[in-house]
Amino acid sequence: MLKGAVHDQPTTVSKTAADLKARKRRRERAANLAAYLVLGVIAVIMLYPFYWTFITSLEPTGNIYQAKLLPSGVSLKNYVEVLTGTTVPFWRLILNSLIICTAGVSLTVTLAALAAYPLAKMRFPGRDLIFYAILVLMVLPNEAGLIVNYITTIKLGLLQQTSPVLDAVRQYAAVVLPGIASIVGLFLLRQAYLGVPIELIEAARIDGARELTIWRRIMLPLALPTIVAFSILEFVAYWNSFLWARIMLPDKNLMPLSAGLLELSGTFSTNSRAVMAGAVITVLPILVIFAFGQKYFMKGLEGAVKG
Questions:
Q1: End-to-end C-alpha distance for the chain, whole angstroms
Q2: Three-class SS of residue 270?
Q3: Vertex 188 angle, CA 225 and 203, to 5°
Q4: Are 71 and 94 in the same domain?
Q5: Quick one: which of 168, 275, 182 has its CA closest to 236?
Q6: What is the mean pLDDT of residues 77-89?
Q7: Domain with 189 in it
Q8: Which of 141, 150, 192, 193: disulfide with 120, CB 3.0–4.6 Å?
Q9: Domain-ending residue, one of 20, 41, 75
Q10: What number of helices (H) and strands (E) belong to the chain?
Q11: 67, 52 in Cβ contact below 8 A?
């Protein structure tokens, strides 16, 4: 009897362990299913407004304020109206957005990359105090600086009217310059720089490299994923420039796309479907940028957080 009981004990233990593993797998499946259901609901809530905008832009007629899953009809006349520029100079707005995005992203990324280096790898009194004092400014909303930026822009003479070419350059600068000092970019790049081994920098200094050379040849290549991620964020921000551009630019032909599409809404009548078509076209470049830069975007933010 004792011998049989001894032989049955391992079998019982094995069955108990197998049951525990099975229960654990079932709990994990249930938890994963619940998580996917919640994420699915959140995804539907977030994506439906864009889907509704898209199907409404395809409708020739109908009630635009009604919730729907399919369009009442399909027509491309709203897109034709936007692209042909019958109401707004669409292609000029595209050019304006590209100029503003190129200048804005280049200046913002360069300034943040330069400013983050001494705050991460150079030692001087008050370094951390300066960094945390800059971070405190993140609690202020962007609207808090509108009046100050407006007065500064006027004092700099960026809205003067002298010649068409100089006026365009100054008005582009009026849109770009107030946003080139990015606290978020400074934080991300500083965190990325902190992940660079100090031994590389010390070795370069021993070899006689100057700080600017170290920044250009060591820090920038190693922080490239974070720089790409920050560039994508800034591209989206400048591409969607609306409020500041509407406030500052006296010439409507120099407005970026997001701000210029408001001209589709007239004083006495509004072609809401054309506005929807313009909104869809505006979003497309952002989707393309994220589709091609998603790998670098996630890797860059992950590196910044780890740093």
A1: 64
A2: strand
A3: 70
A4: no
A5: 182
A6: 80
A7: 90-306
A8: 193
A9: 75
A10: 14, 0
A11: yes
Q: Do residues 122 and 212 make contact, with C-beta atoms less than 8 angstroms apart?
A: no
Hey, what are 264's tokens? Answer: 């589709």
Q: Is residue 84 part of a domain?
A: no
pLDDT digits (tens, 9 = 90+) for 10-30: 566 666 777 778 788 888 888
Q: Are 243 and 35 a contacting pair, CB within 8 Å? A: no
Pull the structure tokens for residue 175. Answer: 């849109």
Please state, rounded to an integer, the average pLDDT across all residues of the chain.
84
Answer yes or no: are the C-beta atoms of 207 and 136 closer than 8 Å. Answer: no
Per-residue pLDDT, 35: 93
Integer Cα distance of 82 and 87 in angstroms: 7
Q: Alpha-carbon distance 165 to 23, whole Å?
A: 73
- Give the count of domains, the chain: 2
Answer whether residue 152 shows pLDDT above 70: yes
Distance, in Å, from the CA atom of 255 to the CA atom of 175, rounded to the nearest integer, reads 9
Question: Is the domain of 97 the same as that of 45?
Answer: no
Which residues does 11 contact at the CB level (< 8 Å), separation at least 6? Answer: none
